[in-house]
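Thread title: Can someone regenerate the structure for this chain?

I was given the following input by a collaborator and told the matching structure tokens would be attached. They weren't. Posting the sequence so someone can regenerate them.
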Amino acid sequence: MKQTAQKLYAYLFELAEEKKMYLYAIIDSAVDGMIDGHFESDEPKKEILYSDPKDQIALELKAPHLILLERNHPFTLRIFEEGIGQNWGCFVLSKEPFDVVATHLKHYTKIYSQEHQQDVYVRFYDPRAIGKYFPLLDQEEAVEFFSKMACIISEIPENEKHIHLYMLDHQSSKIQRVEKRLQEEVLS
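Best answer:
Regenerated them for you:
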């Protein structure tokens, strides 16, 4: 595992354990096709983040998946070994169990566009798009979006030594973005 991936892995699991939260990944299988059954005998808990059953079947290998990450699990290690720096998705910290987070996030992957007069897919989990998505949410939408999550952690595509943490500032009801630098030991 690359040094950057090792630091991120250590930081995320330490943070999840310290806060007594679950650590999830939202992986976009359209980017790499990593959700393709390679680990069928030892797959982690995962779910497609499309609510329409037709989309789930037709787009399974191109859909975002929520994955429960477990320390030292082969699938988790693969995400960090192969996916860091490849824009595979983002990470989520939550006190909520898997089914609650999965159901909640399905409301955000497809929305009706007034401009296009049809449903469109939203890639809020893509590290290249996440910084553009959150500013579009008003205060009420931001509160609702983060109602089941403590924060979303995203790589910064143009800077592998930093990550962004997105969380709700409860005083202003606005989404706050904090940039963290990967330190030599661990993230602080």
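The chain has one domain: 3-181.
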